[in-house]
Amino acid sequence: MKRKGKIRMLIIILVIFVVTGLGGALIFTSGERREGRSLPIADVDFKQLNDGTYIGEYEGGMYKWRANEVQVTVSSGKVTDIKPLKHKENQSPEFTEKLYNRVIKSQSLQVDTISGATITSKAYLKSVENALDKAQKK
């Protein structure tokens, strides 16, 4: 009977430790998540782009976790290619390809984000926006 009581006590302590750790992590990262969710993506006029290759970057938010840099190619007044150059997160090529293909297909930054990676998607779109700001006809 005493052994079962010790095991139960260890399980309870372990559960409390895990719950406390997860709660602390959520509190620690709440500012970063809030900032990412509210990151504005401008409605860039894709009909007013100069041809060329432009580099855009986003500093990555409060903790710089989502810092990234892209190269955007504009040809015949349309975005024809977007390549990731640098990123801190270990995103798969499929992630960036899917997101950037949505931008190229719609010729807009107002695209659906990748499910389960909304904040990261917005960070990557922000760097594309920053590149396209340089491509705007003045």
Tags for this entry?
138 residues, alpha+beta, Sufe protein. Chain: A, three-stranded antiparallel sheet, elongated, FMN-bd
Write up what this structure looks like.
- This protein is α+β, with helices and mostly antiparallel strands and 138 residues long.
- The protein has a domain at 46-135: Alpha-Beta Complex (Sufe protein. Chain: A).
- The protein is built from 3 helices and 3 strands.
- The chain has a 3-stranded antiparallel beta sheet.
- The model has no long low-confidence stretch (mean pLDDT 86).
Q: In DSSP terms, counting alpha (H) and pi (I) runs of 4 or more, how many helices?
A: 3
Helix vs. strand class: alpha+beta
Largest sheet: 3 strands, antiparallel
Mean pLDDT across residues: 86
The CATH architecture of the domain at 46-135 is Alpha-Beta Complex
* Helix content percent band: 40-55%
The first-level CATH class name of the domain at 46-135: Alpha Beta
Low-confidence stretches: none
CATH topology of the domain at 46-135: Sufe protein. Chain: A
In total, how many beta strands? 3
Spatial gap, N to C terminus: 81 Å
Helix and strand sequence: HEEEHH
Strand content: 15-25%
Instruction: Please state the CA-atom Rg, rounded to the nearest Å.
Output: 21 Å
Q: Can you tell me the overall shape?
A: elongated
Order of strands, main sheet, comes to: 1-2-3
Oligomer category: single chain
GO molecular function, one term: FMN binding
Protein name: FMN-binding domain-containing protein
InterPro entries: FMN-bd
Pfam family, one: FMN_bind
